[in-house]
Structures are given as structure tokens and as C-alpha cells.
Amino acid sequence: MSEWRAWRRGSTSGRAVAWLLVLVFALSLGRRTDASGGSTAAPQSPEYLIKAAYLYNFAMFVDWPPEAFPASGAPIVIGVVGADPFGWALDRMVLDKRINNRRIVVERFKLGDDVRRCHILFVSPAESTHMGDVVQKVGTQAVLIVGDESDAVIRGGTIAFTVRNDKVGFEINLTAARRARLTISSKLLNLAQVVRG
Question: Judging by DSSP bridges, how do beta strands 102-109 and 76-81 pair with one another?
């Protein structure tokens, strides 16, 4: 926890320690061999181990309106639309984790599927040109749409991953968050490289 606080304050050594912990954790997860339905493919690159950790952390620092969940015990659904670059990493990142007493599940979708039941929706690089279509399909549903291209927030996504100087970061589109009735913690906003409003 102290490493996370140091990372938030902007300490270079704190960030290095935090990223090291994320990478060691992610690399120690190994390959999925169970029958729970998760991916057994390897992550596309080490970058997606970090992005998987970010998606999990987004779930901790975003509040959804009550009507976003069909029941009090309904899980938080992280969806991936298009070719999945995370492989087993995302499934293992959320395995047996709970946020506000809700399980976290990962589901995979094809372009055109109904993704409105998701709470976090990652649009894969293979489908980045369809970001506008995904945003339109989701409409005003309480879905945090995350893109892997820098223009994702310009095209209506809530968060866009960025990679600068070999460091993974993200931008936030507050207008998109308000449209989806999402409340984003100031702790997450303080980590964003650019907050568009």
C-alpha cells in the first residue's frame, strides 16, 4: 500500500517499485490451466500485463449508479471486444477478487455483440477504428469504455491508454464519464496524463 501511495504522489522510485510489484505479480500468475472458461493464450506483450492491472484498478476507483447492476450481488463485468491482447493475464488478475462485495468477471465479445451489460469495456486495437460505433451502441449506459489508441477519448471513449517513453499511462474524458453517469475517484484522475472535459 505504501508503494501505491508513493506512486500516486509522483515519486519516481515509488512508481518503479509499484510497477515492479505489478510485473512480478503478473508474471508469477503463469498460464491458465483450469476449466473456468478464461483465456489460455499468452499476453500479446508485457505491456498488456500492466494494462490488465490498470483495468482491475479502474474498477476500484470508479463508482457506477445502482441501476448498472441487475441485482445486489451482480458481478462487475469487464468486457473485451475484438481480438484479446491480454490472454490469460486479465483473467488471472481478477481471479477471486471482489470490489464492494462484487465478484469480477471477464467476458469476450465480437464487434456487434450487445456489450451494454459490461461495466468496463476494453476495445481492442484490432477494433479501434470502430470506437465510434461501440460508443454509439453503448449510448448512455453506465459503461466505462477503454480504448488502446490515443484518440479513443476524442472518439467518445472514457479512457485511452497511452504509451510514452515506454511507460503506460492513460487519459480520461470526463464528458464521456458524465454521459455514462460514472463517478471517477480523484485518486484516479490524479494519475491521468490528460483529463479532457
Answer: parallel
